[in-house]
Amino acid sequence: MNIITTARVKSPWILHFDTGSCNGCDIEILACLTPLYDVERFGMINVGNPKHADVLLVTGPANRRNARVLRNLYEQMPAPKVVIVIGTCGCSGGVFHNCYNMLGGIDKVIPVDVYVPGCAAKPEAIIDGVVLALQRLAERSESKPALAEALA
Amino acid sequence: MLMVDWFMATTILLPALAGFVLFFVGQPAIRRLTVLALSVILIIASLLVLQNGPFTYSPRPLAGVAWNQLLVAGDAVLVALFFYFGWRARSGLIVGLVALQAALVAYLEFALAGVAADNAPLFYVDHLSIVMALVIGIVGSAIAVYALHYMDHHEQHLRVEPSRQPKFFFSVLLFLGAMNGLVFANSLPWLFFFWEVTTLCSFLLIGHDGTEEAQRNALRALWMNLVGGVAFAAGMILLETTAHTLAVAEIAAERQAGGALLGLAFLVVAGCTKAAQLPFQSWLLGAMVAPTPVSALLHSSTMVKAGVYLIIRLAPGFEGTLLSPLVATAGAYTFVTAAALAVSQSNAKRVLAYSTISNLGLIIACAGLNSALAISAAVLLIVFHAVSKGLLFLGVGAIEQYIGSRDIEAMEGLLRRVPLLTAVTMIGILTMLLPPFGVLVAKWAALEAAARVPLAMLLLVAGSALTVVFWTKWMGRMMSAAPSSQRLHVESLSPLFSIPLVGLAALAILLTAALGWVMSGLIGPAVSDWYPTVGLASGDNGLVSSVGAFPVWALLTVLAVLVVVALVASPVREKSVRAVYACGENLAESGDTDFRSIGDGTQAMSLGSYYYVGVLGESKINRWANPIAIALLVSLMGVAIL
Amino acid sequence: MITPSIALEILVTVFALVVAPLAGGLLFGIDRKLTARLQNRIGPPIVQPFYDFIKLWNKDQIFANRSQLIYVYVHLGAAMASLVLLVWQQDMLVILFTLALGGISLVLGGFSVRSPYSQIGSQRELLQMLAYEPMLVLAAVGFYLVTGSFLVAAVFARGTPLLFELPVIALSFVLVLGIKLRKSPFDIAAAGHAHQELVRGLLTEYSGRYLALIEMAHWYELLLVLGIISLFWANPLVVGFGLSLLLYFLVILIDNAVARLTWTSMLKITWSWGAGLSVLNLAAIYVLSYLGWIGG
């Protein structure tokens, strides 16, 4: 890995967006920040601002109400970026599947890199998902065409 | 030698004469030609006086009548005019003040025979007068030229018929002549005469638009300045009876004591009224009702500068006395209080007015600190403040004619709407605020000079911090992005606007670049005429004082390089532009003007500045500020007797 | 003509400009590690700020408008210039003015976008400047009263440390540092690392390379303020550095122990406890030098 890729992998800043989850997964994400799991040791920071974020964590299913908000936040993140959905709802719609106002999983709205299923997803699973996403980020960063595409 | 008398006489008499001509000749073409020609002549004449250097001069009797007798006649005319204005407005206050002033002056001129007995030269031109004459000549002329176009537009806008411009330009030009007379005069009664002429002109100009508000504010300016006139006359009587001289140069040449010191205290109070120091600030704030060139004139090169000029001029006379620290404290007090008041203002002209009052307070504080370094700071400030503030008023006035408002809140995204005017106005603010421009160099020198005078130093520190707040808040509004729906629109400016504006903007920057020359050629001599040293010298990288150094050129270079780097290194790629973060609720089509709100409704994003009215509002501050200011001025009187 | 002394000066300047951001970044890394330890966490590696910097530098460049970028360069340049002035042992007041120039530039950058977060952040940043500037200028006045000059060189020329005469003013730098580092309880304009306030306050609309440059300016500013604190014990300077690190640690401790305050409380605290006590310190100097007990 070159220095830029290393830096990218070591400094994933996170934007967390809840499209309408039951808050179960959100609680688990916050648990990751506590001393027990301490994701800041991997350089992760919850920034709350798409313009500063590298990783978009989405909880909840994609629905008609806030699909455009989701898309807007995704577009406001500068490349290279990765998207992780946390929880079954975000992966496929979960218990809300086929509801009148549902679009389904998050990947119906924006491209998703990593799916972390679970209801709710455990902090360990979330951390695993982030690590996987960082691998994707590293691959993308190392391969010139993919990076060029990401930055285009 | 003969020639330089003429140059000086030109700067005084020619504007007055041209004013009279324009009063009777109403053709716009003649007016333009006269004002333009006069501006050029005034600038050349003041430069020639500069080139010649200091001299003294007493004119020969005019057709067998001594000039001092003419002075008595002139004073009588002024008294009659003031009396008439007071009587017409049914103002007992003004009539009373005029009567008091007339009595004092009559006592001085007839009972004490103060003027007639004086053998001192009528005019005493030293480097300080020359600096002032240059400021009046250059900045004043720029304002007069600007007024040509401004007043046309102004009268069109107000539908004034027939034009009142003859009267307006009469007052403006007479004002310039009177200011030149004031700075060249050596005899205090003559200085007083010119002083009262400036009062008259400001009264006429403030009331020019004739609205009820204008009339009221003009009358307020009149009575407040008449209070100053009374203090001036009382001071002259005290000086005549105790120091037995009314020649400025003689009074300043030695340290005064006792009654003469009290006389100086009275003159300082007179200076404070003219310089609109607290508690007299309301006349200058009220003066904003007048057309903008009037504000520019009053704030930058004339009127208020007469007040600080008088105090600086007399400062050597009270050096080392108790009066010095008291004046320093009073000035520094106005500096900080006016700066605090400026924070709560959303009216651009009121911000400028408070900033003027604040800076004049700083100048007076420097005069009170009364060391060579402090006086250098004061004169530096006079020069740089005049240029920047003149520029700011002209800029704001022009902006007002374009956008129809002088409210800072209405100036959001101004750069997109009137880029040229915004740029020059920004230069005005930046040269007032940022290092290494002249005003800040002066502030630096003032702080270094004040470090041994505890109370004044504290007030200056607090005032400097507040100054940053109100300027930056305003700049922030002006430089804020326009809603992206707004197209860039470059305004077309009349040359009568662009020449004074661009000229003053260039001058504001060039004078800083040429600070070494300004210091050694203009300000240094003005200080060393009266003080053993200058306190400031130009060193390798900028200015050097005995206790510090300001690397002006190094910083100016850094700033220039940074701006160039920033412009070159900031790429503009349309596809890199993103709307601002609005919690994901931006409306795609509007970018950063609207966002989606409750029930999918469209909500306009409106942004505004903070004004802290609850903490720093006028009503909050004035409650205690004015009584304290009065107490400070009274203390000048009381302690001078001790 | 380059004489040896000028060559040395250039060398020192370049050294300062290169080492300062490295040291500043490292100190911020230590800060994050310490904060984590204080919260019973492991925390990121101490080189974390550099990872952040490199990552940000290589992100896609997006912005709201062009003018916001210009202010970043002036902000960074002013921070560098003020550090260079300190290294050249120039006038304290000029150093502070230059620092303020950078501050004003950043505020204007925040104002230059139509974002409520960034504009409110800018307003608050102005209040922060209003809060710490008097303390800094009073410190400069204190230096002058003790050494007889505003030049930093005079501090080095003096044998005994300034700390003995100016203990309270030295302590007031805890407040200055706290505000400049965006630490609780004064992180109201834009909070540091994992904290959030007004999204990211006046930095909300800066991203990628420009955020990295602002971060770098922050490192320079940290070194500048620590450098000024070191002047309180200039001979030997090592002790001064120790002193500045001590205050830095104190600020981190306070950051972890207290909650965020409103701007009114900030102004009250800084103007009364900070500037007010500094004034008492200066008053003591005036009195003592009047009595002839200390020179100056």
Can you give a write-up of this model?
The complex is a heterotrimer of chains A (152), B (642) and C (296). In chain A, the strands form 2 sheets. A 5-stranded parallel beta sheet of chain A has the order 2-1-3-5-7. In chain A, strands 4-6 form a two-stranded antiparallel ribbon. By secondary structure, chain A is an alpha/beta fold. The mean pLDDT of chain A is 86. Chain A has 6 helices and 7 strands; from the N terminus they run αβαβββαβαββαα. Chain B has helices at residues 2-24, 28-52, 67-88, 92-111, 127-158, 165-184, 188-206, 212-242, 248-253, 258-274, 281-286, 292-301, 304-314, 323-343, 348-369, 372-403, 414-417, 419-433, 438-450, 454-479, 495-513, 515-528, 552-569, 613-616, 618-641; strands at residues 55-57, 123-125, 536-538, 543-545, 549-550, 594-596, 602-604. The longest helix of chain B is centred in the first third of the chain and has 32 residues, at 127-158. Chain B has 25 helices and 7 strands. With 642 residues, chain B is mainly alpha-helical. With 296 residues, chain C is an all-alpha fold. Helices cover 71% and strands 0% of the residues of chain C. Chain C has helices at residues 4-38, 48-57, 67-87, 92-111, 116-147, 152-157, 167-180, 208-230, 237-257, 263-290. The mean pLDDT of chain C is 88. At the B-C interface, helix 19, helix 20, strand 5 and helix 23 of B face helix 3, helix 4, helix 5 and helix 10 of C.
Shape of chain C: globular
Give me the secondary-structure category of chain C.
mainly alpha
Distance between the termini of chain B: 45 Å
Shape of chain B: globular
Stretches with pLDDT under 50, minimum 5 residues of chain C:
none
Global Rg of chain B: 25 Å
Integer count of domains of chain C: 1
Radius of gyration of chain C, rounded?
19 Å
Q: What is the helix content of chain C? A: over 70%
Strand tally of chain B is 7
* Total E-strand runs of chain C: 0
The profile of the biggest β sheet of chain C is: none
Mean pLDDT score of chain C: 88
Key terms:
heterotrimer; A: 152 residues; alpha/beta; Rossmann fold; 5-stranded parallel sheet; two-stranded antiparallel ribbon; 6 helices; 17% strand; globular; B: 642 residues; mainly alpha; 3-stranded antiparallel sheet; two-stranded antiparallel sheet; 3% strand
